[in-house]
Prior knowledge:
Blueprint lengths: L11 H11 L7 E2 L1 H8 L3 H14 L2 E3 L4 E3 L4 H9 L3 H16 L2 E8 L2 E8 L14 E3 L4 H8 L3 H9 L14 H14 L2 E4 L6 E9 L5 E10 L5 H27 L1
Antiparallel strand pairs: 1-3, 2-3, 4-5, 4-9, 5-6, 7-8, 8-9
Helix pairs in contact: 1-3, 2-3, 5-9, 6-8
Organism: Diaphorobacter ruginosibacter
Pfam family, one: IclR_C
GO molecular function, one term: DNA binding
Amino acid sequence: MTTPQPGDTYVQSFARGLEVIRSFSANAPEQTLSEVAAQTGLTRAGARRILLTLQTLGYVQSDDRYFRLTPKILDLGFAYLTSMPMWDLAEPLMDQLVEKVHESCSTAVLDDLDIVYVLRVHTHKIMSTNLSVGSRLPAFWTSLGRVLLAGLPEDELRERLARLPRRQYTQYTAVDDDVLLERIREAREQGWCLLNQELEEGLSSIAAPIKDRAGHTIAALNISGHSNRTSVDKLKNELLPQLLQASQAISRLMVTRRR
């Protein structure tokens, strides 16, 4: 992917401001000026100007040494959710699905090489990672991601695969190009994807697409379960029909809402 360059359509100072915001994370909830500069590749003077601007706007607070984000930063993320009220239509159906299957249910969208969670309905905590709305996971190694990737044109899928950093998350993780392509194509052909312990040991999930009026995949819905209580056979034979029913119902609602 070509990195945008400064010009009439690219505001570098704004891009740098977003980099500063993204430098804060669970591993770095508060940082000194020097740490922000090092994380973003900015000079101390440049990082200071951006941090003070964010502080003036209320997105950052400081105790003179450490900077941290404020709750106001959530406004930026929730702007996406509130601008797309269709997710309000999906949540009641997800609640019903969770009541039936007694497993956690999620909806996610694709963002380059990641999936981003836009809705979560929990039952039990099944991953060591605390997933919530806004959380990201690698698209190629999640059932949600493979369903979303399956909706891409073949040339775009291959382009993303070529940029994919490889990581062996578990002994079951597929990292070979041909294997990954085969599994994504299988998801495209059958209309769903089952992923077994490729991202985390003991975790399996099954996902189905949510489509718009034109039949394009715009999101994905999944059910996740731990292998000590939900086998792969149970996911496929018992839970898949209910998942497909829910995903198709949400797709119909999306079409109705947009008319």
